[in-house]
Amino acid sequence: MEPEKRGTDTAPATLMREIRVAGTRVHDLDPENIPGVVQLLTAADETRRVVFLSTFDLIRAWFFPGVRRSLESAALVLPMQRGVQRAAAIAGHKPPRRHMPFQLIIQLLGAVESAQGSLYLIGGRPAALEKVEANLKYTFPKMRIVGRFPGFFRKGVEASLLTAVRKSGPDITLVGTGVRGRWLEKQSGQFPPGITIAAARVFRVFAEQRRRPSRRLFESGLKDSMKAILLPWHWLRIPLYLLLLMRLVVERLRRPADQA
Q: What does pTM read for this prediction?
């Protein structure tokens, strides 16, 4: 059996901290270190994926090997919910910082612009894609947008798309709506060196199809709490969360006292 590919074996501890929560890799990234991390990831000799982690993803990674492999192969696994921070604390770790996807992507693009880097866009209908490109050119005028490709594409054109991305050699590829779930992960070996990130909701914000998320609401954690209360199917997850809690308690009991 081949060993699972690790995404951040070369990442210096001074830029980010890596912990394991319920067996899942989680990174603690200080926003001040984002430029350094971007420089590190774009200098790598292979594609580096950035993913956002929800609390339920911890459970999915526990029970589904495909999800676990996907997180293991990512370069950055960043918490976006308070539940991940609580889970880390229960397991005996210092809680990692959590990141709002919209804000984090803005910071990544800002770092790419500062380095006079480039961006490739994949996703959306043609009109929406044009709107995304126009808005990003306005916001990041010094960043080069070296290509774009609409989403909702047929499987037969994937080879042409991947060839176009490789020839463009972007520092970061942003994948939005109209791209199948784990397509980016499955095709990561076909992408050129650089950062890849899938964020359909953020893509819709750039396309002006969705309101810009509230930083205050994100910081308060109310959005996640409201989802848990108002969406009935979330109640069915309660037994799974209780199982997760028991696993985290066991991890804490087995954890050496001198480890953070």
A: 0.88
